[in-house]
Amino acid sequence: MEITLNSGYKMPIVGLGVWRMEKEGIRDLVINSIKIGYRHLDCAADYKNEAEVGEALTEAFKEGLVKREDLFVTTKLWNSDHGHVIEACKDSLKKLQLDYLDLYLVHFPVATRHTGVGTTDSALGDDGVLDIDTTISLETTWHDMEKLVSMGLVRSIGISNYDVFLTRDCLAYSKIKPAVNQIETHPYFQRDSLVKFCQKHGICVTAHTPLGGATANAEWFGTVSCLDDPALKEVAEKYKKTVAQVVLRWGIQRNTVVIPKTSKPERLEENFKVFDFELAKEDMEVIKSMDRKYRTNQPAKFWGIDLYA
């Protein structure tokens, strides 16, 4: 299943996120995902594993597992490179060993002190707070993103972690509209207004943290995952599916792209088996009623400032 972006390109509705994936495990993860049927990889300069993903992709191409044109590869511009968009994109392409990106996203709507292209540091000031660069506007960053399309380095461009206000602004100043807004959304953090606003204006929503963060976010942020919710377990039992499969299917039926992450081979396969069933309207309503407006991914822990405040 694919969604056609406003750029005309098709984006697979299920992808594999590689955030917090250990470098030594990347090769097997990427190769196995391609063998299972994944054709969408979600990367980022800040994940610090683009080079390992690139090595795995090169191996997959050489072995004939998949053709480049059949893969959809996303990566993201880090905060510290807002003033160096073209150089940062070329750096990511070099690490990924690709000639072009299918999608390049502005990772966060904030520019921070530049620390060298591709270093993806989050420099803090003397007060322990993220050193935000107030001289670079998001509009300037976006126009540099647009240049990447005309240069043939990127097919589609988009945004990430933008709210309604910032998304509206981007629509106003853009010559090339954002094709995607990648945001945290899951049953406990549904963000219906933002999802509907984006979709109304032709922007595809990609759900990062589509399973509510699970173990990864519990470790880093001390959050609770929706996967343990009794109501979701009841729905899963009804369909003879896992809770994760039900949650991913819910995301798909909202017309959002889902990019679950996992390092476990059995979960990799499980997360892809979401096309052989459909949630009934009443079960979609049950999940809709579970919204807690509960964010699980909160970088304020590292940045000393809540950018969502």
UniProtKB/TrEMBL annotation:
Which InterPro entries does the entry link to? Answer: AKR, AKR2A1, Aldo/ket_reductase_CS, NAD(P)_OxRdtase_dom_sf, NADP_OxRdtase_dom
Where is the site described as Lowers pKa of active site Tyr found in this chain? 76
Q: Which SUPFAM superfamilies match?
A: NAD(P)-linked oxidoreductase (SSF51430)
In this chain the NADP-dependent oxidoreductase domain maps to: 19-291
**The entry's keywords:** NADP, Oxidoreductase
Give the source's domain of life in one word.
Eukaryota
Q: What molecular function terms (GO) are annotated for this protein?
A: aldose-6-phosphate reductase (NADPH) activity
Please state which protein family the record places this protein in. Answer: Belongs to the aldo/keto reductase family.
Q: Name one Pfam family in it.
A: Aldo_ket_red
Query: What residues sit in the active site?
Result: 47
Q: What is this protein called?
A: NADP-dependent oxidoreductase domain-containing protein
Q: Which residues bind substrate?
A: 107
